[in-house]
């Protein structure tokens, strides 16, 4: 008996009588909802890339007239909203939602209908955002700072559509988070104490708690904005007792928290992938888990890092700097532990590990350059320059695209029963890795040296930033092609990929115990969990047993005298 | 950027320090990744040593990172405090102020900057200040949030409606320093530029007096028109 045989009984051949689309539309199963969120996220990634490329074409040459300022501002608002609310966060929650119940050995989720409603709200949000094209999309930017977002300055319904769209999506994420928190709290397999929970499922817990907190804050802010715009409210308008800075505080709490959430997700996935492909346990698991929680808390508390040029007291600025710099410790420990896990291992250089390595590299560049934005006086120079664009994109593309793709390649066999095409994955990976340097490094220089400002629909020849922008535009164009290759790979491999078997990577967590794709009830039988690596325990037990029986057999076959 | 005031000198120093720190971290992680990938790449099937933790190593790494962060925090506070130190007017500066800073009200509006001088004169787009004189800007906004940004002379600062933000700087070098607004403020945001012209104190006095006379003459003309019934 080989050690990889699954020791479990499975009732296979269960057939649903309903057509596939009806099953998808009505199911509250966490796997179906996870699939919808992941597919939707990849679709919106495509749209976000289209919007980004359109903006970069406008910024290809100085004083370009490809887009007028209003169209550019609309593209900008759509791009930011799509990238955060309709690509990154749904990819994060889709993977959390699909994988983490399997990882803890749950046969479903605690509040399945709540999650289904959450997914429905997210789809409603996406519909509202893009229905904005039927009238007018928002022109107020990625984070529409009040009072620009007030009706006095943008009187069409674009900002209302934006607020409704992000509000619906955020409420959806909060509902999904509540279900995840309840599931991960109550439905872990026997013996799976928190210290034995897989790191990705731990990241799902941390991320869901974080979303419940920051999502509520954003919902409050959006409600106030809606009241201001439609019912003569005065929350964010000055002179009548309102405070424009209030919007900045509330919205930056959300955006900073969402930034941290994406990174917590990425590191959770990377920890699983790195240890599976190095064939070693994660180095210092408890420290890594505590660090992820610390990133979520401390990172969100650093929200005023985005307000260092606003009229706030210097004490608050130092507080933001303290929190932001304190992040060096947990981020550093997690990255160190990931590298220490690989040291001494035997690395199998398959696509998930490649994307994981790329993600660690990109996130490091992004976070290290965010460090410059944390030091108050340096931020006084760097704030709202393209340097900030580059830093944020390195960290977030590192987390959500490279990290998300690593997770997608890793769990794709579990979702579909097939692996993603390896050669296409390699081409896509190297394109993304190399070309994103081309696309975003010039923006670092344009920001630090020339002080090129963000969000502007054009720049001028005398600003001396033409060369940087040309290189960046070309880089981002090729980067988009590289990213699209992986989306194409996923679509193609879903039906045509090589069959993967149930446990292609020799994983050590419970999701690899069940079938690929899993049956609706996930597991027939579950082992008692005795460590953080239950499948390894099972394989060892099987190995011991078969060795014993071989020894017994060989003893019996020996001549007696 | 090329700093032209003591405050931006400090900003530039801190920026350089932070970039060096960031590059050190980037190189350290990249080198470690490359080393690990080269050294431990291997064929399938070999089971490595199942090392679970190294507590001593972890403490050392954590301690080092804490030290690194603390050092950056201290440098950040010291240099930021230096950068925001109020400059004092030198001997070659504007004498009529008797050492007081030159107070100028800056108003951001969609999509132009207005500068009000102490004698009642005002100018749009371009601010004129004397050399070697402490200048204190009071930033306000009449509509949305704008960011005043002349990076060679002073820090970026937001003009928020209903609030006053304060920026002070001093410059010894005559010249024209340009900047563009740095917060999305609507359609014409990309063209919302400003400039600060640093001139000698004599030229500054001449400039504000001429501006004041021009403004008074214009007001008088308008008043005459109103009185004579020909409202403009």
Structural overview:
The complex is a heterodimer of chains A (561) and B (232). In chain A, 67% of the residues lie in helices and 0% in strands. By secondary structure, chain A is an all-alpha fold. Chain A has helices at residues 20-26, 30-58, 69-103, 112-131, 158-186, 199-230, 244-278, 285-301, 314-326, 328-342, 351-374, 376-382, 386-416, 422-450, 466-496, 534-557. Chain A is globular, with a radius of gyration of 25 Å. Chain A has a single domain (40-522, 531-540), classed as Up-down Bundle (Cytochrome C Oxidase, Chain A). Chain A is built from 16 helices and no strands. Chain B has a 5-stranded mixed β-sheet. Chain B has a 3-stranded mixed β-sheet with strand order 4-10-9, with helices on one face. Chain B contains 3 helices and 10 strands. Chains A and B meet through α3, α7, α8, α9 and α10 of A and α1 and α2 of B.
Could you give the topology of this structure?
The complex is a heterodimer of chains A (561) and B (232).
Chain A: H1 20-26, H2 30-58, H3 69-103, H4 112-131, H5 158-186, H6 199-230, H7 244-278, H8 285-301, H9 314-326, H10 328-342, H11 351-374, H12 376-382, H13 386-416, H14 422-450, H15 466-496, H16 534-557
Helix pairs in contact in A: 2-3, 2-4, 2-15, 3-5, 3-6, 3-7, 3-13, 4-5, 5-6, 6-7, 6-8, 7-8, 7-10, 7-11, 7-13, 8-10, 11-13, 11-14, 13-14, 13-15, 14-15
Chain B: H1 6-40, H2 55-83, E1 102-109, E2 112-116, E3 122-124, E4 126-130, E5 135-141, E6 146-148, E7 157-159, E8 165-169, E9 175-180, E10 193-199, H3 201-227
Parallel strand pairs in B: 1-5, 4-10
Antiparallel strand pairs in B: 1-2, 2-3, 5-8, 6-7, 9-10
Care to give the gist of this entry?
The complex is a heterodimer of chains A (561) and B (232). Chain A is mostly helical.
């Amino acid at each position: 008996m080989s050690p990889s045989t699954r020791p479990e009984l499975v009732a296979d051949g269960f057939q649903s009588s309903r057509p596939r689309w009806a099953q998808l539309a009505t199911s509250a199963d966490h796997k179906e909802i996870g699939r919808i969120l992941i597919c939707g996220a990849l679709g919106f990634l495509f749209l976000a890339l289209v919007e980004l490329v359109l903006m970069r074409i406008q910024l290809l040459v100085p004083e370009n007239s490809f887009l007028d300022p209003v169209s550019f501002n609309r593209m900008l608002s759509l791009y930011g909203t799509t990238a955060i609310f309709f690509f990154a966060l749904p990819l994060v929650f889709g993977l959390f939602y699909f994988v983490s119940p399997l990882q803890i050995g749950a046969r479903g989720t605690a509040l399945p209908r709540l999650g289904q409603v959450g997914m429905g709200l997210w789809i409603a949000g996406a519909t509202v955002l893009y229905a904005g094209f039927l009238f007018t999309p928002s022109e107020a930017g990625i984070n529409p700072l009040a009072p620009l977002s007030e009706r006095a300055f943008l009187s069409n319904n674009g900002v209302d559509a934006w607020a409704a769209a992000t509000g619906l999506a955020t409420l959806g994420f909060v509902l999904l988070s509540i279900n995840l928190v309840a599931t991960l709290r109550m439905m872990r397999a026997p013996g799976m104490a928190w210290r034995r929970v897989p790191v990705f499922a731990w990241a799902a817990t941390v991320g869901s708690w974080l979303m419940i907190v920051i999502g509520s804050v954003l919902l409050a802010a959006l409600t106030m904005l809606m009241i201001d715009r439609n019912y003569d409210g005065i929350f964010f308008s000055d002179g009548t007792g309102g405070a424009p800075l209030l919007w900045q505080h509330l919205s930056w709490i959300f955006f900073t928290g969402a930034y941290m959430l994406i990174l917590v997700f990425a590191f959770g996935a990377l920890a699983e992938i790195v240890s599976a492909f190095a064939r070693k346990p994660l180095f210092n698991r408890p420290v890594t888990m505590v660090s992820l929680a610390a990133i979520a808390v401390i990172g969100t508390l650093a929200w005023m890092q985005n307000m260092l040029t606003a009229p706030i007291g210097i004490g608050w600025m130092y507080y933001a700097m303290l929190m932001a710099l304190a992040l060096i410790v947990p981020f550093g420990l997690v990255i160190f532990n990931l590298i220490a896990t690989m040291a001494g291992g035997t690395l199998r250089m398959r696509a998930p590990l490649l994307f994981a390595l790329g993600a660690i590299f990109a996130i490091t560049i992004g976070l290290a350059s965010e460090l410059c934005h944390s030091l108050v006086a340096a931020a006084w120079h760097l704030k709202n320059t393209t340097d900030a664009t580059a830093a944020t994109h390195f960290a977030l593309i590192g987390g959500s695209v490279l990290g998300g793709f690593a997770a997608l390649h890793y769990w794709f066999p579990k979702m579909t029963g097939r692996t993603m095409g390896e050669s296409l994955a390699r081409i896509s990976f190297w394109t993304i890795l190399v070309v994103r340097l081309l696309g975003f490094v010039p923006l670092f220089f344009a920001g630090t040296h020339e002080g090129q400002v963000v969000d502007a629909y054009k720049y001028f020849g005398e600003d001396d930033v033409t060369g940087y922008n040309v290189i960046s535009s070309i880089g981002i164009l090729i980067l988009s092609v590289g990213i699209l290759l992986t989306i194409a790979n996923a679509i193609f491999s879903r039906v045509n990929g090589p069959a993967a078997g149930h446990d292609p990577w020799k994983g050590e967590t419970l999701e690899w115990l069940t079938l690929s794709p899993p049956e609706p009830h996930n597991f027939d039988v579950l082992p008692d969990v005795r460590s953080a690596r239950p499948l390894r325990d099972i394989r060892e037990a099987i190995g011991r047993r078969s060795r014993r029986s071989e020894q017994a057999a060989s003893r019996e076959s020996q001549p007696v005298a | 950027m090329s700093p032209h005031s003591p405050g931006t000198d400090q900003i530039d120093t801190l920026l350089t320090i932070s970039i060096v720190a960031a590059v050190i971290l980037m190189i350290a992680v990249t080198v470690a990744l490359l080393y690990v990938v080269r050294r431990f790449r291997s064929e399938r099937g070999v089971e490595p040593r199942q090392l679970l933790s190294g507590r001593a190593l972890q403490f050392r790494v954590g301690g080092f990172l804490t030290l690194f962060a603390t050092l950056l925090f201290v440098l950040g506070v010291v240099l930021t405090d230096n950068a925001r130190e109020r400059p004092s007017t030198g001997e070659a500066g504007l004498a009529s102020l008797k050492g007081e800073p030159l107070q100028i009200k800056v108003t951001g509006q969609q999509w132009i900057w207005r500068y009000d001088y102490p004698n009642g004169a005002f100018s749009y787009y371009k601010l004129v200040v004397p050399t070697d004189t402490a200048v204190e800007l009071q930033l306000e906004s009449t509509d949305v949030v704008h960011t005043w940004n002349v990076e060679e002379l002073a820090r970026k600062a937001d003009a928020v409606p209903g609030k006053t933000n304060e920026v002070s700087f001093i410059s010894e070098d005559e010249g024209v320093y340009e900047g563009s607004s740095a917060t999305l403020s609507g359609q014409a945001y990309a063209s919302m530029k400003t400039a600060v012209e640093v001139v000698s104190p004599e030229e500054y006095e001449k400039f504000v007096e001429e501006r004041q006379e021009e403004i008074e003459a214009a007001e008088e003309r308008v008043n005459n028109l109103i009185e004579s019934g020909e409202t403009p």
